[in-house]
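Hey, I'm writing a tutorial for new members on how sequence and structure tokens pair up, and I'd like a real worked example in the thread rather than a made-up one. If someone can provide the structure for the chain below, I'll link this post from the tutorial.
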Amino acid sequence: MILEDSVRPDIGLEDLGVSNPFPLYARMRENHPVYPLKDKGIWVISRYDDVKFAMERADLFSASGQKALLQPDWLPDDLKRDMFIAVQDPPEHTEKRALINRAFVGKAIQALIPFMEAAAQEQVMAVEASTKVNFIDDFARPYVCSVSDRITGADSDAYLKELGRWVQLNQANLSGSAPSTEHMQALQANMARQNAIFDAIIHDRRQNPQNDLTTDLIKGRVNGEALTDSQLRNALELVITAGFFAPTQMFCQTILYLGRYPELFQALKSDPGKIPAFFEEALRHAAAVRASLRHTTQDVTLNDVTIPKGSLAFLSLASANHDPVRFPEPDRFDMTRTNLKQHLAFGVGPHICIGAALARQQMRIILEAILARFEAISIPSDEDIKTAPSWVMNVVEDLPITFH
């Protein structure tokens, strides 16, 4: 779509999934900060202050909106997860989230650091200088999955292989019709395989408790009651998927910056203490997660526009992080910003990313290992980097790189 000076009236979800949606978002923020998509009942909220407000006000913007992405209306009951954490609001959400949160608090993360350092060293030692590697499959995926495996005890890689098609189908059908009978049968078989992976670890931990999250979840109680098997599966699914997709894409974006800007690579190599600031600005500039969804619980008015009750609010994290009111010259990569951590890449409010602190440590550790071992990184030109259209995430599908 070719855009004029203002936003055209026929913008749809597909327009938000392009590789560079920022010119469109700039026009939205300026002219239509609350914008109704042509996809019926979906409203884009694009300004920083409005997105932050919506994420903090679960009484007005319910997390049940995530069901539109995770469990669309056409999905039969036997394929639906018990989304008891991702789609609930306080107070129900709070106590259940606390069961998972204990694996991501300070002491738990500190205990993981030696393991992550060893895993990072194993990855960099496995890569020979001047050898081209598929960064996602050969580097990022093994490192990120090893951390998830350590936390949950589950086979993250086996589960993720079953999940890929499922995620794509749910996204493609957010506003569409149900898939064919044949495709639905494939989904049912896929779900059975997913369940088998989780049931195996749940059964094992009931018989042989370990010092991991799965054991903690089995022992945990909410209002005096144990979690059901369905809830246990969902909790593990949430931890593994959130701990893989977003961190892997964050990792890809940081590597792209280091490959595009050799002077940045050298600056961080000379002073690894700048890595945290670099990572925060990378999160703001090209966040892995582009949007979060909410349902309005009543009519809500923002910027003189009323979003009807029951609408799907598309909270654009990508746009909010490029709002010049909050981040002057937002398209410029600037590690010296005084408000680096005010980005919304991890969200805010009751559903703020539970693994944010872990992700920061993961990236610091692996980047320190890369910078210590190698002198430079070569990446393909932008047109040779395989990406996937997605309004949900900033998706790099294939990233061949060479370490020097």
